[in-house]
């Protein structure tokens, strides 16, 4: 009872803190900078990270297993992963990534604490197949990869917005001078800051940063995803007698892996335009949610856990 109450308190404190942070950031964005948004975001998400860490440790202690056995626990771990990435962005002084991690933590934490998942918020005994040390290795790597890939994909979406806005502005200017330029060079837009002057210089730097950090974060997520798939295959062989069963969850995990493998290939190939890799990452953003939520909610396959606790009767 004490552990449950403590978990409940930590859960609502973390959600309240991140909600206040996002609210003040939005007010400052729409009205005026009364408080420096970046400093506020830094200070707000750090106690959120500590609260979520305490929540996971508390649940681990009184449940007797690593808290990754159902949708509720995986969402809490996903929120913790977003806040962990925020800590990384804090040390790197990356404002764009911090804004994404703060918003992602808010929405994930909000859904986890909603009434939709109230029935599975109480921990229970794991089914025999999940009583394995591979639970920590496989599921944690997969959730960490989801968090990193989602953040990197959102950075790519922001990159697309700035690139297409820049191209549309150039097109409007070309109409005004009766001259339309049809060519578009990735290296010029992403790396040659001398192309811009005045206000456009800042946009050039921002585009370069978004491209750089989306690549780095997605690369990290891809490493986690690869580790998660390999460890899952080993665990599947121990539990089900086969490394790969073409289960719907496995298929979509493989599709996710392929999408981001294509992204990394395009991103490191200078023959492709700058927005091509960002478009692939944006597609990957949707694929991740299908893999994480969609397949489970269909209630089919070996991973058909959905929003129900993985407990034995």
UniProtKB/TrEMBL annotation:
TM stretches of this protein: 12-32, 44-62, 74-91, 137-164, 213-236, 251-266, 278-302
Record's keyword annotation contains tRNA processing: no
Keywords, alphabetical: Cytochrome c-type biogenesis, Membrane, Plastid, Thylakoid, Transmembrane, Transmembrane helix
A GO BP entry: cytochrome complex assembly
GO terms assigned for molecular function: heme binding
Keyword Thylakoid belongs to the record: yes
Compartments (UniProt record): Cellular thylakoid membrane; Membrane
Single GO cellular component term: plasma membrane
InterPro entries in the record: Cyt_c_assembly, Cyt_c_biogenesis_CcsA, Cyt_c_biogenesis_CcsA/CcmC
Membrane topology summary: Multi-pass membrane protein
Chain ranges of the Cytochrome c assembly protein domain: 68-303
Subunit structure: May interact with Ccs1.
Summary of the function given for this chain in its UniProt record: Required during biogenesis of c-type cytochromes (cytochrome c6 and cytochrome f) at the step of heme attachment.
Family annotation (HAMAP family): CytC_CcsA (MF_01391)
Family classification: Belongs to the CcmF/CycK/Ccl1/NrfE/CcsA family.
Name of the protein: Cytochrome c biogenesis protein CcsA
Source organism of the structure: Lobelia urens
